[in-house]
Amino acid sequence: MALPRRPAAVVAAALMLAVTLAAALVPAGCARRPDLCGLCQREIHAEVRTVVEFADGRRVAACCPRCALHVAKDGGAAARTIEVTDYAGGGMLPLDAAWLVDGSDETPCLRHHAPVTAGEGAPLHTCYDRCMPSLIAFRDAATARAFVADHGGTLQPPGPR
């Protein structure tokens, strides 16, 4: 039995409807791009997100406390405040109120970077990276000390930076 012929307009309309429905069913998260650091353009990881507020009132999201401190010390615009994320529990706090772990084996800013090679596959040694050594913030001393016990690094108490 031969199938009935359908007008080309009906087939085209059905195809367009199918494509539209398929696009609507794709989860929004698949198309979402990660937030990028306003200072170095790296992906921002929620557990080390940092916000720099400049003297002119601009607020810029940064990938980590280390990157924000580079801008505060070396940048042209004066940083008024820096807020950091508590690595263990989330939530923002002023940089001066945070316990900081400097140089642990956790490197959130480098988590998704492939090793750089010299063309022949030999990995190159990193001489400088603005986010290294890592600088990770904690709200309380006990959590920061436990982190240092597990991941190494040097603990810096709250205070002016």
Note the gap between the termini.
83 Å
The overall number of domains is 1
| Helix content class | 25-40%
Question: Gyration radius, to the nearest Å?
Answer: 24 Å
Strand tally, please? 7
Low-confidence parts: none
Per-chain topology:
Layout: H1 8-25, H2 28-31, E1 50-54, E2 59-62, H3 65-74, E3 79-85, E4 92-94, E5 99-102, E6 135-138, H4 141-151, E7 154-156
Antiparallel strand pairs: 1-2, 1-3, 3-4, 5-6, 5-7
Descriptive notes:
This protein has helices at 8-25, 28-31, 65-74, 141-151; strands at residues 50-54, 59-62, 79-85, 92-94, 99-102, 135-138, 154-156. The protein is of the alpha+beta class and 161 residues long. The chain has one domain (34-156). Strand 1 and strand 2 form a beta hairpin. The chain is globular, with a radius of gyration of 24 Å. The mean pLDDT is 81.
Give a summary of the structure in a few sentences.
The protein has 161 residues and is α+β, with helices and mostly antiparallel strands. The protein contains 4 helices and 7 strands, in the order H-H-E-E-H-E-E-E-E-H-E.
Which keywords apply here?
161 residues, globular, alpha+beta, 4 helices, 4-stranded antiparallel sheet, 19% strand
